[in-house]
Predict the structure.
Amino acid sequence: MNIGFDAFIETEVPENELIISRTNLSGIITYANETFAQISGYEAQELVGKPHNIVRHPDMPKSVFKGLWQSLKEGEKWEGAVKNLRKDGGYYWVWAEISAVKKDGKTIEYKSMRSPMAIQDKITYQKLYEKLKLSEENRVLVSAYISKESFDALKSKA
């Protein structure tokens, strides 16, 4: 068990910044802008060559990504709220817009532009995603207070 406090720390996407990346058709990152690197806690070169799900937060329901890939394969743009996982265990919310890049009428890669979200939207989507996780995976998010002694005992077993 890895217990860390970083999991509760949100990194805010600056209002005037866009997170941009491109992937191949299998979802492997081929380009990551500096904002993506800074917000995710990775260096850009650590992201390139890795599956985009390197930043997938465990709070995200599988159905969101199933719908995303279905839309892309049907040639449609996908957009929606995504909670991402930082390298240090923290998280950040983005509004993602993902679409195909075409050459001679054929999809050659995908591009993604992610922008900040309002706090109320983050709360709304967190609640929605918790319901989806329960219905799809029979998993619930738990947050609890425990004694310092219990915490220390858990931490020492990690």
User: Anything to note?
Assistant: The chain has five helices and five strands.
